[in-house]
Amino acid sequence: MSWLFGNKNKNTSSSQTNLQAHRTKQIDSLKKANLNPIEVIPNTEYRITFASGGINITLVVSLPPLFPQDQPSISVHPPIYHQWVDSQSKITNCPSLSSFSMHSSLAVIVQSIIDEFKSHPPQLQSHNFGVVGRPPFPPATTSMSSFTASGGMPEYYQSPGGHFGTNQTESMQVAENSSEESLSLDKVPDVFAAFPDLKTKSLTELFELQDEEDKILEMIQKLPHVTKFAEEREKISNECIELARANLSYKPVLEQHRQWILEKKNLYQKTEEEFQRNQQRLMSKSEDFHPSVIQNNLKVALMEAEEESENIVEQFLEKKMDVEEFKHRFIQTRSLCHARRAKDEKLTHILVQQGYSN
Q1: Residue 130: pLDDT above 80?
Q2: How far apart are CA 23 and CA 66, in angstroms?
Q3: How confident is the model over 279-288, as pLDDT tens digits?
Q4: Is-cis flag, bond preceding 37, omega within 30?
Q5: Going by fewer Cβ within 10 Å, which terminus of the chain is more open, N or C?
């Protein structure tokens, strides 16, 4: 059976080889375009850092498994405002990326994005704690020594075209950890604004408060939002109770209407059965009194009357009856025979006029 499936396996492996060759070609074009990409995940994720408007911007190029058959995903760090970047920091409105195909060049697409950002510098998004534009990881030329003790911020003054040294993996991990810490700081709520009583407590009292869940729960319940939520919940609960009582008050009326409907249903069923019986009787009578049936019965009665008159004549000729009896019976039978023949002819004439067929 190998002759049935041999060509299919060969074609599948050939298509996979061609796809891998195109993928390698696209990655090589990215490396040869003097963009200095950093390979984070082999054949899957690359990062390219460049300067635009006095800030360092990093493009994260993610290649899907079926690339270049499927379109690559390109995101930007740090978060910026630009017409090509959506709220998730992904490049969405780049014409060359939107029209990506098997024959597109990944290097050309990345270069067009860099040119757009350099010609129209984007604006950094502001964080809640006042630091503007800190990227989630340092560019390729920045090492851990660039972090200063005064501000805690890396000094990005070197050229973005350098390469990572031997500490590439370590610096990337530290940069990603600092990114996660900065994002977590953005989400920290203002505790003192929510609980103003905590400002007057000492450090010892605060530590003691950690073990007293009842007091913490009481403080939370006194919050305006929690109080408002409890009031709304109580209001909705009362409305549900009132609605349930109103529904229960309708139960006797509904039962009364239900009983009335059941009675009407039983009456309808009895009336329908009687109607069916009467309809069957009507169909039977209609068949019995059909003009063709009446005509056939009349012809049979006529033949019986003629046969009876012939029998009377035979009995008279055989002298089985006297003259008076013969006259009486013969005249009566022949009169009946003539009357039935007249009725038959008249009925036939009526049926012909009204279009009935025999």
Answers
A1: no
A2: 9
A3: 998 888 877 7
A4: no
A5: N
